[in-house]
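tool_log.txt
---
The assistant was asked to compare two proteins side by side. It first ran the structure predictor on the initial sequence, then on the second. Raw inputs and outputs are pasted verbatim so the downstream comparison step can read them without reformatting.
(1)
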Amino acid sequence: MDLLRFSTAGSVDDGKSTLIGRMLYDSKGIFEDQLEAVTSASKQRLATGIDLSLLTDGLRAEREQGITIDVAYRYFATPRRKFIIADTPGHEQYTRNMATGASTADLAIILIDARKGVIEQSRRHSAISALLGIPRICVAVNKMDLVDWSQDVFDKIRHDYLELADKLGISGVELIPLSALLGDNVVVRSEQTPWYQGRTLIEYLETVEIPKERSSDKFRFPVQYVVRPDLNFRGFAGQIASGSVKPGDEIEVVPSGKRAVVKQLHFFDRDLPEASFPKSLTITLDREVDVSRGDVLVKAGAAPRLSRDLDAQVVWMDERPLALTRPYFLKQGSRTVRARITRVLYRTDIQTLSEIPTSNLGLNDIGRVRISAAQPILLDPYAQFRRTGAFILIDPETNATVAAGMVAQDQPESSSDVVWSESDVSRVSREARNGHRGGVVWFTGLSGSGKSTIAKALEKRLFHDHRQVYLLDGDNLRHGLNKDLGFSSEARRENLRRAAETAKILVDAGFLVLATFISPTAADRALVREVIGDRDFVEIHVSTPLAACEARDPKGLYARARSGEIREFTGVSAPWEPPANPLLELPTHKLSVPESVAKVVDLLEAKGLFAEVVEVPGGGI
């Protein structure tokens, strides 16, 4: 008999655990001692009968609350097929567990309460199922007995869900009206639904075609362990993630690029003439090459694209929201590297499935992000490579898994695919000629706070002191370099990214760059800091209160924002997040411009930006 892995998902009280209990009970898939234990536990909750949900709700907290918290795996069989069930939580708080349970499923059963129809959790679970590439979806419309077995109710849910499935790109959908509590259309066909001529749930599970797990013909073998029992044997153990291999094949080690020929394929006490996905085995090579845990063996000449930069779809699983300032570990197969999320491209709105620009993701959010890793990783698209195209992000402080990720099909042009052309004149040589270090003084604050006024006065002061200095103004950039950008959240982040990259080039030329940008969120400023680097970044908060800024209103922007003429205006209709730990605060409603300039000069002096740079002999031109 073949094996079908399926997961269940749905909102709280949709009846997932009861449905599984019914399948186990009616198909005689439980042992007598299990039945006795559940019968005993049921007496504490029910006057008569058996609470079938207790067959899967194994945690004490689950039984007490009557909800599923953890993923419960159960095995049962019928005369036609064997099954492994992952009963996943329905409560929004535990959606991350649903993603975990569904990650290896061939099929997902999405439960919908007939009284409620397609709700937000139905959409979220369906979106995650589509994201994970689950090829079959069975929609169990439960509690039909509570709507008098109405065909109209079922047809409405069918229409709404098929519309959702079409938007998500899900094609293999089956809908079944049933009652998990009473057993109608679960194992036994119901007399209450003469208008339904389809299969019962068990009939569907027994006969649905099990799609072969996606596997590209391209060979991928992530090395999990180096086997070295003695000096005469060195093999590489793991599971084939894609494709096939045989002795005599020339392989390449990723990421080192070293090549060798497969000598033997070892499986327990015998050798194999060939092996293919998803076989676990040990591979030996014809010569000694450096291969370690985390490396991937591929066919020579068919190496995957490698990059330190990638775009990916993620399901955020941590109660702490995503932070661009926080480092993470990226674990892809058996390889773990340091990484940062440099941009959040968008969040998927579960109701409309539209892409909403945002700067962060919270618990259970689904979105697309851009990641920069410390070392090159495989860019196998998840759609073709389910094993090597998936990864998780881990918080290095707590060791908690914070996100599940899928490598996107389309990738940005990566900086790691382009080699930086070093100038024959070094930055140190330029700084030595200038007589001071380069750096970026980043002025952040509300519109009208006085950023530009202080920066202009500071530029004049530094220029007269013979410093190489340049004022980088946000409005000026929008007249040229950034004239193609609008004022959406995404466009504003791109505006800041370009500004930061421009400032970085000027710093390499030895300049002191004075940058004046509102940069309203912590994520925005973290992006800028990431581009420029901590050593060269000086953050100054021009901390003039909103009331004072609005009273000045030098450009008349606040008046236009209050009247609704300008939308998404920082401090009025868009959020403003003051810096938590700036190097300097300048409350210009209390300080004069000369006083503010003096404070900045003192800060730059203390940070050593005015110190004379000594050029190392031979290290300049």
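(2)
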Amino acid sequence: MATTPANQTALAQQARRAYVEGVLRGLPGVVQAVERGARLLATQVAEPPVAVKRRDVATDFAKAAPFWQQGMTTMMRGALGGGMVSASFPGDLPQPSTRDKNLSLVDDDTIETEIVSSRLALAMMDRASWEFTDLRSRINLLEKREELDGNDAFRPHVLARVATASWRSAGLDMEAWRVLQTVLHEEFAQFVEEGYHEINRWLVQRRVLPEVDLRPYIRRAANSAWAGPVSGGGGGGGSSFAASQTSSGHGRGGVGEETRMMTRASPLARGIDHAEAVLGRLNKLIGRQLPEFVATRQTAAPASPALRTAIADAQQGIARRLSPGGAVQTAAGAVSTPAMLEELHQRKQALKQAATTPVERATIEIVALLFQSILTEERIPATVRVWFARLQMPVLRVAVSEPDFFATVDHPARKLIDRMGACVMGFDATGRAVADLLEKEIKRVVQVVEAYPDTGRRVFQTVLTEFEKFLEHYFKNANEATRKGVSLAQQVEQRETLAIQYTIELRKMLNEVPVQEGVREFLFQVWADVLAMTAVKAGVQSDQTKAMKRAAADLIWSASAKVSREERAEVIRRLPPLLKTLRDGMEHAGLPPAKQDEHIQRLNNSLAAAFTAKAAVIPHERLEELMGRLETLEELLPDAADVEIDESMVLDLSGHESSELEVVGEGGSMPTPAMIAWAAELQVGSWYMLDYRGRNEQVQLAWQGLRKQLALFVSPQGRGILFQKHRLAAFLQAGLLVPAQDESLTVRATRSALAKLDGDPSRLLN
């Protein structure tokens, strides 16, 4: 659709007004969501001073919420005319105290408010950065300008300043804001993300930069605050991301938590969407400067002979200079980051001179920018950084020849860098050095990649698989901090799996046998666990395990009807050693004496029923068959891989708790299917922040069990924290367990490269 300059300006203003109207309609839902979040926070277990503060904040916010909403509405309404929000915010902030006419000091409250406002704006940009970038490009195109005005209503920091200034005007202090900061950041971030998305969609429908890929990853609910002005429908209340969270309380509107999570997709899917969006933005930016770059992404094309030779020479030179004992290193022996960057910069210039096409030069520049970001990542320990530097040439070789390196997030070269980075980026934060074995493995991986330059992605995929196997062995056998915890976790899994297997098979065996109900429950709920514990500690074929199985058979026989004097005498003779065996088994399984007495009393009642002939008679041949099957019970067990250790069969793992292993049995909120799927996708070696039992500390995922039903996290001090999958999902959903890295190493590096290229696109062509 052809438009005149006047029409284009009017279209931009129409979009801006639509955005402001959507904000005004959605603000009540945001305020309601924050209030629900405050109430939920006040109900959560915390240290007494923290709990009191949360309750006070919830009460204060409930009183001040209408005034906060009114303040934000008033300030945003001023943008309906020209789309600008006043920079002065009259009456919202304390005025600076003056020394004289020319100099003034800004008071601490003003500075603190500005800091809080900046953090909120960053949170919104982290969530909506690619949507905002596309929207800014479209508006700048329509208005023929280089950049949006500093007070443009579209800018995230404008809404952030409105929110914080109105907060202060409503009588709320910054301490209350900090208590609710997580809720505030989440609600505003998802709110503006949807707003940008809908305005972008509306502009694309009007053919404003339609070639920019607008990913439809946000599906609006029927009551979206953005539905009216940009889609032609009537206005609605609340946002599509405002679906109420019945368990976490952070939603808006009336849609349930399940719907909300379905519209947003799982955090794992969102992470993939984010990574793909960043790659998409990179390709769009490069495509605008170099259209042939996008065309070459469709078909594989080997590097020119001159560039292949230059890459090989550069790789050898870098290996010599950046290896231990090479020419570029500090007095302590580690290669300094500035020296690495300078070395790689010189190599980049030489490579560009050898390149024969603009696409090759652009690829060299992009890969160099990626590694510049990776090597300046402070959380990568200095001793490991050099091995990441040596990956630049192998990665460049792949990027030049394989079209999907810049198009997909699952290229093995990217995945290898991300996995190694995720494992080592937590060490500096904990004050520990990277373990020698882990550093040696990273070194080996890089040297293998260097040794096979002509195999492309295959060598990256091979070493990635080997690295995953190394991590499993490393945490299980070689890492002092995790070895004990992994061993204990494996014992827990083995015991619980065996207990479930024994229970399943015992139920099959006794399905058609008339066994007393009290005996049946004891065998399923208690003795199956005793059998499993004994098998784990002493071995499946050990005499102790056989004795426990004989005790089960004796108990079944003793509880069947005894009609003759001889049978009753035999029961009386066998009973003392049987009861002793039962008590010994329960004691070894960790049952307290009171529980043992309770079970023995119930069994005595069942045996009394047998003496009075009230119990059913079990035919002798049936008893013989039953005892034979018990003897060979292990041969009948279902496959361990088919056994799920979940709440449906194992209600309590607290009996496995020890000074070295904490078992998480409570906390979190009811997980959705999306959260359960995310819990199953966590990767061994990755670092997380865990809020549990009054501690907020960094932990590393060290082990996952069969079918990932159990997961062990280990603290820097070596303390193990064991989760069942559903409990792990509950902690993820409640925000009690969060990844230490918001995004992967390569995605962060790509965003950094985007920022540099956005500032100076000409470097692609030089």
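---
observation on (2): The chain has four domains: 5-97+105-264, 277-478+749-764, 483-642, 654-742. The chain has a mean pLDDT of 79.
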